[in-house]
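Recap from last week: sequence in, structure out.
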Amino acid sequence: MAGYDDRDGVIWMDGKLVPWRDANVHILTHAMHYASSVFEGERAYNGKIFKSREHSKRLVASAEALDMPMPYTIDQIEAAKKEALEASGLQDAYVRALVWRGSGEDMGVASARNPVHMAIAVWPWGAYYGDAKMQGARLDIAEWKRPSPETIPVHAKAAGLYMICTISKHKAEAKGCSDALFMDYRGYVAEATGANVFFVKDGEVHTPLADCFLNGITRQTVIQMLKDKGITVIERHIQPEEMADFEQCWLTGTAAEVTPVGQIGDYTFEVGDITREIAADYEALVRS
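Predicted structure tokens:
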């Protein structure tokens, strides 16, 4: 496929549908220099964005956490996403909503006088981990750790929080892995570079407590689905060595959906019944 800057179609930018190749910003855009941007990754199934309003609410909350006053209401964001999706002509698609500080009077750390912009791009995107969605992904263990809530707004979906994810995923892919698993600043199991993690032991599901990383919308959805099936879900701090005793593992995320994991570092897992069932249930839910 062509690069993401060289495609047909349109991108919604500040109220207008702009030809894809013309959807550009100035080189002195504040976000490019100081990471003053937040975003949402969403999927549309059969022409409808799954959990769309929840994503729009989180986008606004993330912008507020980074002291960026949103120029659009949630209803306006919803209308913009609908317009962008319809203009794409796609039924199954990935939807990226982005909010950022643009260029303006400020070009230092402070940027209060610079305007806040929003854009929405839509494109086709298959399984995030490719064949691993069926066979079980292989994960490296990242060298970096998710930071303390005292150091950065950890519950915002902010671009700057993903730099260590990029570094870690590059290293993982160089080793033949699909992704990398982070520990948090205390040494507990946290999450993958763009997905939350779940484990199974003795018919119960364990997942790290989301107290220093993003409590994913897919994560919340899957937890409720498991509870509705009568499966016990335990949200808690998990020590890395506990992975030796877990039988199954999977990742959740809007892009990842529900992806089985076969290996994390030296720890191995089976793609078992609970993993298969929740993956199938999630697929049915998003297309219902």
